[in-house]
Design brief:
This protein is an alpha+beta fold. Helices cover about 40% and strands about 30% of the residues. The chain has three helices and three strands, in the order ββαααβ. It has helices spanning about 25-30, 35-55, 70-80, and strands at about 1-10, 10-20, 85-94. A three-stranded antiparallel sheet has the order 1-2-3. Helix 2 packs across helix 3 (about 70-80). It is flat and about 45 Å long. The two termini are about 20 Å apart. The mean pLDDT is about 95.
Length: about 90
């Protein structure tokens, strides 16, 4: 999956491209008996829950992904990497 965002930073036009890499159809099914789409979307909820299980939250009440600290996001991505889900981000000036 690819997400592209175009905007300005320090007065310059830039594009940020983020690639989400995950196991394909055959790999996802071999790992967990589900499709690649189910693997990628389902693991997101599991990984967020894993932050709770491992007591990684200091926030209380309603918590959404945009409220996570950089440390929590890094931990989330470490957990994702264990499931062969990785993120690659490239920034380029336009």
């Amino acid at each position: 999956m690819e997400v592209s965002a175009i905007g300005k930073k320090d007065g310059r036009d830039i594009e940020v491209i983020t690639l989400v890499n995950a196991p394909g159809l055959a790999e996802s099914f071999a790992k967990s008996g589900i499709t690649a789409e189910m693997y990628l979307t389902g693991q997101g909820g599991y990984l967020f829950s894993k932050l709770f299980i491992n007591d990684k939250f200091d926030q209380t009440g309603l918590i959404s992904s945009d409220m996570l600290s950089f440390e929590q996001v890094d931990t989330y991505f470490e957990y994702a990497k264990e499931l062969d889900i990785t993120i690659d981000t490239k920034v380029k000036e336009l």
